[in-house]
Every structure is written in structure tokens, then in C-alpha cells.
Amino acid sequence: MLSLRVKARSLLGTQLRRLLNNSTHRCLTLSASYNAAQNVYKNENECLVIKWNDGNVDEFPHVYLRENCRCPACYTDERKSRTMYSPKEVNLDITAESAAWNTEDDQLEVNWEDGHTSHYSFEWLKYLRYRPPGEGQPDGVLRKGVKLWGQELSEEGNMPTFQFQKLLNDDQELYKWLVTLEIETGIAKVENAPKEANQLPVLGERVGYLMRNCYGDFYQLRAIAGETAHEIGYTNSFLPIHTDTTFNQSAPSVTVLHCIEQAEGEGGANLWVDGFHAANLLFEEDPESFQILVNTPVVFRNITLTKRGQFYAASRRPIIRVDHEKRIQQATYSDEFRDNHMSIEPKLMKSFYKAYFRYSELMLDKKISFWHKMKPGDLMTTNNYRVLHARSAFKDRGDNVRFLEVGYFDLDCVLAKIRLLAEEQGIPSPLNL
Fold it and tell me: SUPFAM superfamilies given for it (predicted)?
């Protein structure tokens, strides 16, 4: 490798150009006054290589940089999107003729062989550089920032708690609440909401929108007398642990339960379970069983009658879903709606049941669960991709009728609000996308 430190404009010199063309790594530029990068050079992989002052080295393919040019002719800042809509507009073999740091605006200026000039900010290059899978992440199957929990959240002061009115009026508080749900514990109590119906649309508008499904924009949950209830949730019987709407192709990301009236006396409490904690324990004690639950598609099905009519929903997904870095992204669990469709070879069925039964046992361990009875005016908000819940049996008495309203947010709505709030507050987004 020939190491040369030159100013960008000197690349026009014929003798220097010959030297650069004859070297394996062709150094394009260095501005000594620029404190972010030491130099920029081409390599044999058709990339511009940036060596930063912090010691890191990043490669940016020529075709990638050209296709992502940030100039007004190629990119519209108003829509945050490129204006070139046809891949044919970019030459696959495009090459940078020269590159230089513009110290006045802290941008990398690249002159292309097609006569075009592009500018890329230091922040853009750092943010969009290639990151190998798992970089900056902890070992194991949990994403960075995940906080596992269990019985300790039942103790006074341990559960993440927010105030309803503050969420409506304070952007920083709203941001903390959404990050708590999406990244950290996946569960939070919201206190002092009005003890009356129709509060969920108010919170929904604050975040973005409530997720509509077969039950409507949100729905009311009261026990239905007799045998007319189409789902066990509409009875006063014990409700086993589950994640909500497992039968929908697009399950909601966040579940919001608003307690308007609670059953007096015993009963009506909820069991909250950290599904990620159970999955992580399974991975640590039996990686093979963990992989079986990751790799086996399971069918969930529901035929129900709601105020909006009859619906027949079905979905297929694994009990544990992982992302592209093989980190836990979603836990799906509901014995009520798990179908009897066989999605695995018969010879492997016993192994699936072994893994499934063990995962079920782990979720009932006090180390990863706790009981909590909501009070009127409380909202329990949970990440439906992670937190399971159950309900103890209860009795309605006279004018005391347990009454909750239930609403959902979809994942796109939650992530969009987190990104916007982070940008408005001038802080880095905690999301990996």
C-alpha cells in the first residue's frame, strides 16, 4: 500500500495520478485541518475507504454513494427520498475521479467520472456505514437495552409508572414511555386517567392512531352472562396467559388496558409475564429447544362474532420470532387460539412439544412474572410482542361490574413516534432502523 497524504485538488497532477493508479490503495485526499478523518482512498473492491481519526475504517461502494447522492437533483430533503426512481440511471461500474473533505461544511465532496458532483455529511456517512450483524449488541439472543424482569415489579416503586395527563402534555415523558415499552421492560403502568370511557382515543391521537381490528378502534370488556360469550375474555372465568390477537397476520405492538371499574373483593387481578425472559432462559438451558420454537411455524385461528360482524382470522408464525441478527423480536402465545394444524414433520412433533411445554413452564416461574390488580383510573400498557397476561376469575356483584376498555397501537405507529420525538429533542434514536 502506498500511503500518500495530499490535498484533493492536487489529484489533478499527472505524475501523482500515475502513482495513485499504480498503487493497490489509491489515496484520494486528506485535509489536515479536518478532525474526523485521516484520509480517503480507493481500494480494489470498487469502494471509497474512509479512515477515521478514532481508528475505525469504513468502506463505501462507489455505486452506493452515487445512487445515494444528496444533491438537490438526486435527493429531495422535503420528502427525505431520492428523485432517481429507475436503477438504470446509475452505472454499476461508476468510479469516483476524486474525493475531498470540504472543511467549511464538514462534507465529503466526490467528483464522479460521469461529471456529477456529490456531497455527503460526516453524520450521514457515520450513520449509514455498514454495520456487521451483532455490532454493539450484547452476547446472546437479547437486543441491546432489553431489561428482563419478574416478581420484583410487584414491589412498590419498581414498576415503570407514568401519569396520564403528563403523557398528553410532555413530549419527553411520552418519549420515555414509548422507549420503555418498545425497548426496555415492555411494560408500564399509567396512573390517574379519568375513570370514564373513551379515554383511549385521546391517548391514541397523542401517539398517532389506535390500531383498528375486528373489534373496532378499541373495545369494551365486560363479562357476558351465560354461554353467549364467543371468547373467554368476555367471561368472568380464569383467562390463561396469552399475547393478544395471535390469529391476526398483523398483531398489535402495544396493548393498552384502561380500568374504569374493577371487581370488588378477590379476583380480577392480572398476571404479567416477561416472554423475552422465558425465551432467554430457554436459550440458556436448552438451545436446541429454543431453535425448535424459532423454526416451527404455528397456526393460530379465531372465528368470532363482534359488534362489527363475524370474522374468521388465521395466521402462521413461530412461537419465538427472531430478527436478522437472530435476536428475540416477538413472543406469540395463546393456547385458546393455537390451532391443531400440523406444521412440522410427524417425527419432530415430540421435540416441538418438549420445547413448547418447557417454555410454558418457564413463563409461570415467579422469577419472570407477577400479579397486579388494576385500580379504576389505571392503564396497563404492554409490548404485545413480549409481555403475556392472564386474569384471575372474578364475580360481578349488583352494580359493581368489572369494566375495562382495550386498545392497540401497531408497531409502525410506535416506532414512527419514537423517531420523531428523538429528532425533535435532538437526541440519537435508540432504534436500529
Answer: Clavaminate synthase-like (SSF51197)
Edge-first strand listing for the sheet containing 117-121 = 96-102, 107-112, 117-121
389 sits in which H/E element: strand 387-391
Which pLDDT does position 403 carry in this prediction? 93
Q: How far apart are CA 16 and CA 6, in angstroms?
A: 10
Mean residue pLDDT of the chain comes to 87
Its pTM stands at 0.84
Contacts of 399 (CB under 8 A, 6+ apart): none
Domain that holds residue 89: 37-128
What are the backbone angles phi and psi of residue 404, rounded to the nearest 5°?
-125, 155
Which residues make Cβ contacts (< 8 Å) with residue 184, sequence separation at least 6?
145, 146, 147, 160
pLDDT for res 102: 79
Answer whether residue 163 is part of any domain: yes
pLDDT digits (tens, 9 = 90+) for 113-137: 999 999 999 889 988 888 887 777 8
Q: What is the pLDDT, as a whole number, of residue 279?
A: 98
- Using the 3D structure, point to which of 62, 95, 128 is the last residue of a domain: 128
The pLDDT score that the predictor gives to residue 136 is 75
C-alpha cell at 244: 393478544
The count of residues in the chain is 433
Q: Which residues of the chain fall below pLDDT 70? A: 1-38, 84-88, 225-230
> 121 with 155, same domain?
no
Collapsing DSSP to helix, strand or coil, 42 comes out as: strand
Q: Do the beta carbons of residue 58 and residue 41 sit within 8 Å?
A: no
Domain membership flag for residue 306: yes
Question: Angle formed by the axes of helices 171-179 and 411-425, to 10°?
Answer: 130
Q: Which pLDDT score, from 0 to 100, does residue 350 have?
A: 95
Q: State the CATH number of the domain containing residue 43.
A: 3.30.2020.30
Tell me, rounded to whole angstroms, the distance of Cα 405 from its chain centroid: 25
Q: How far apart are CA 354 and CA 344, in angstroms?
A: 14
